[in-house]
Amino acid sequence: MSNQKLLFDEDNQKVVFDLPDAEIELSNNFFSNEESDELFRSLIDSIKWQQDQIQFYGKTFNVPRLSALYGDKNKPYSYSGITMYPHEWTPDLLLIKQRIEEVAKVEFSTCLLNYYRDGMDSNDWHQDNEKELGHNPVIASMSFGETRPFQLKHLHKPDLKKIDIPLSHGSFLLMQGKTQHFWKHKIPKTKKKIKPRINLTFRIIKN
Ligand SMILES: O=C(O)CCC(=O)C(=O)O
Ligand SMILES: [Fe+2]
């Protein structure tokens, strides 16, 4: 975040990033440390984590992380060539969803969870722009566990520096407006010995 211009709201709780073609805001400690510790442990144990695979040039690879899809019934979600059917909401997820909806002022139908077991787990450059998410997707992202950098780069403005937002334990990141049309994001790998991290992205599937 070196020379990135930031705007703070009145009580300094929320950081709004001043980026072209994007609406991105970050609240650190959206959940307290104690709540976050509890949720982290509980999610690791209670979520039905699965190992997805992708086809690439005729070969099959394990996706470098575990994932799970939860949400309203009858809302399948297709991304990277995989169609997933959601599990039913759990008490943890409903609690988190409610807290997030108060701030985001929308209702989410679906939550995609990622479990990055160590530094070799990652999420490569992509946009969350699947048709089911509608024209300007609202993506609400909660992180628990190890802090990992969330990197963003503009698709058509190579002169703009890559943005690096550290997503810490209990932090909440909201992306909306045109963000998914103009910016890609990723969680890079690292050789450092680091602890696990869980990320939850709440989304709205419009069907
Ligand atoms: O782990 C993260 O913070 C990002 C996850 C993500 O980009 C996704 O699931 O689409
Ligand atoms: Fe994403």
TrEMBL record:
InterPro entries referenced in this protein's UniProt entry, alphabetically: AlkB-like (IPR027450), AlkB-like_sf (IPR037151), ALKBH3 (IPR032854), Oxoglu/Fe-dep_dioxygenase_dom (IPR005123)
Domain Fe2OG dioxygenase: from-to ranges: 107-206
One example GO MF annotation: hydrolase activity
Pfam family, one: 2OG-FeII_Oxy_2
A biological-process GO annotation: DNA alkylation repair
SUPFAM superfamilies: Clavaminate synthase-like
Protein name per its UniProtKB record: Alpha-ketoglutarate-dependent dioxygenase AlkB
Native organism: Seonamhaeicola maritimus
